[in-house]
Automatic annotation (TrEMBL):
Molecular functions per Gene Ontology: 3'-5' DNA helicase activity; ATP binding; ATP hydrolysis activity; DNA binding
Annotated protein name in UniProt: DNA 3'-5' helicase
Source organism: Rhodoferax fermentans
Family of the protein in this entry: Belongs to the helicase family. UvrD subfamily.
UniProt domain UvrD-like helicase ATP-binding: residue ranges: 10-299
Keywords: ATP-binding, DNA-binding, Helicase, Hydrolase, Isomerase, Nucleotide-binding
EC number: 5.6.2.4
Amino acid sequence: EPVSNSSLLHNLNPEQLAAVTLPAEHALILAGAGSGKTRVLTTRIAWLLQTGEVSPGGILAVTFTNKAAKEMMTRLGAMLPVNVRGMWIGTFHGLCNRFLRAHYKLANLPQAFQILDTQDQLSSIKRLYKQFNIDDERFPAKQMQWFIGGCKEDGLRPNAVVARDDETRKKIEIYQLYEDQCQREGVVDFGELMLRSYELLRDNDPIREHYQRRFRHILIDEFQDTNKLQYAWVKMLAGTGAHSSVDGAFQPTGCVLAVGDDDQSIYAFRGARVGNMADFVREFGVRHQIKLEENYRSGSNILDSANALISHNSKRLGKNLRTSQGPGEPVRVFEATSDFAEAQWMVDEMKQLVREGHERKEIAVLYRSNAQSRVIETALFNASMPYKVYGGLRFFERAEIKNALAYLRLLENPRDDTSFMRAVNFPPRGIGARSLEQLQDLARASGCALSDAVSGLSGKAGTNIGAFLAGIDVLREQTQGMSLRDTIVATLEHSNLLTHYKADREGADRLENLAELVNAAESFVSIEGFGRDAVALPVDELGQALTQSPASQGLDLNQPVLDIPAPDAETGETLSPLAAFLTHAALEAGDNQAQAGQDAIQLMTVHASKGLEFDAVFITGMEEGLFPHENSMNDRDGLEEERRLMYVAITRARKRLYLSHSQTRMLHGQTRYNLKSRFFEELPEEALKWITPKQSGFGGGSGFGGGASYSGAGGPYSERARGQFGTDYTKYNTAATAAPVPAQKETPGGLKVKQKVFHPKFGEGTVTALEGTGEDARAQINFPRHGVKWLALSVAKLTPVP
Ligand code: ATP
Ligand code: MG
């Protein structure tokens, strides 16, 4: 069967066809976004297999993400009856992992070696610092992490690094200690995966020759973002350069097809070298350089926007990109009054898109920084819209958040052993692993919770752990009568988490996330006047109920609802706001996460979106300082990389593209008033459509502080805006501790804080806090014999004690 008749080759333009059917030689495809680079790469693999040029085992294909690898295998599986699992398709790290698992003994690793992510790596370095008394001021751990990563990318082991001065000498020493520790523990970091597999190939002739012989075709997508070591690894496998043959006996035949776009190089900060493209052409003697100029993804409004934007960059290899799809939809631009309003608007647009028949997984939200996702996640969660967050942890799963939640859970339940173990020695308070083992043994022996076993612990261990528990008890007492927000602020303070992360030079992100936690608590309000019935409904029905009710005027639908179940019919006992908040956190971190394969809205950073495409794309937070990011907008290279990022973001959209920015944004614990991004000015006006409504609704008309719509200006949000605290954490702490106990609140029943009351079951107690009104009114009461309880006043039979 002649190849040109192959159905594989239908729907390829002449340039693509030429690339797919290239002779077995090295080649480079340099082309813009959406021009079919990845399609060509996939189709070439299929073509090579179909024509019998190579067997599945002879293919090595490198994708940028695991998701892309999966997609490629799915497509190949659909094109051909081959066992795709047998093919080596994956990311550099994934492939190296596979390689090292296959040759773990030669690589001198345990079979079940574990992989350290960036965070684990940092903690591992820090553990070393403690053990060897290394000065974190002189050699910040994060800097060491960069140093180690950099050395590994250059292929350098400690003994190969040149020690020009004392400082470098010390760093090399630490690098060596770190390596020893990793080896002892049987763990490898990301850089190590690459380097160790590179070294194994380099130093083991039979292994190298085996793979050089085996991989007849090596195909690499997103080549512009490869780093130095990855390039060397490819060279090694392809047999180009010093290790191509041993004694001239073996001539490797691996062909490399590299595919990339210099305008989409967005990982320079992580060591990516666009220069690898030019090196590749030179060192591999590339004769075939193919350009693809037709974009198949988007209409000209989107494409013109991308082209116009990127033309502001000076360092470019130069390519053309056109589309024959016609203008398509205009690029929609929306201005919100607040991040809340932005998220709410987005959810409404998504609902509309879904009604129009778009699948949820064809809708993506892109943001510049992970911190932006929380507000969006909350809005989606409240709208019962399934969503999936790619790359980066979901907000409530982040370590610092989990650490803080552990303390809060202990306030609610001292017998929560998981939280106990998480909090007891974090931040470190000198409680050793030995002591904790002892405690666990004790608890196991008597079948009780860890906190209950503490009394049986003697010596220093008992004293230390006892003090920790006593501290929690004191905090529980102190936070009585405090608002949820203040409880969290006090807990952060008491736990020393703030001090801990503040002392950590690299803890700024974590502090910001902890500030976000306070924001989250603050906006987590009970909806007064709705009654328990409303909040007891499932969330989507609740959303319905709220929209239909006149009482929803002035309510921000995006705010998490305090989902308090009906109180105990007999005693009136009800969930505390803290417990409700913790439930919310657990739910949001787990249950709402769309299952694999479920049709869900896709949330990710722009970095993570590379290579992907969606029917509809929202690029959010288009504000100065956010996008372009404040860390990069003041130097030219940085700004050009931001612009390439924006180019990547724009070119993800097939049909519809939204760009939004907000007048105010609660970020990093602070309300910011951001200017709209300079990138708007670099877009062609005729491609844009401004869709911000003039009248109330979501923004436009009401402006700052006006209007009672749920745009965020009125209602509970204004409280939130006023309750801001700066990034100055000292101020924040002072404000927190100085926060007055809500005093003199009166309920219809006439209860007051500090008043004594009598409950038929719990006896006499003192009111410590009051919340809500009408049907929803609740009181926190401290009963000396039964502890602190939250009671629903409409149910609980309380009588004032004079
Ligand atoms: P990026 O730079 O974003 O990674 P890309 O160059 O890899 O983009 P692809 O993802 O391969 O581009 O293709 C973009 C879209 O265009 C895909 O949906 C693909 O199926 C489609 N496409 C590519 N070539 C053709 C063609 N000749 N005819 C029709 N559609 C095509
Ligand atoms: Mg691609």
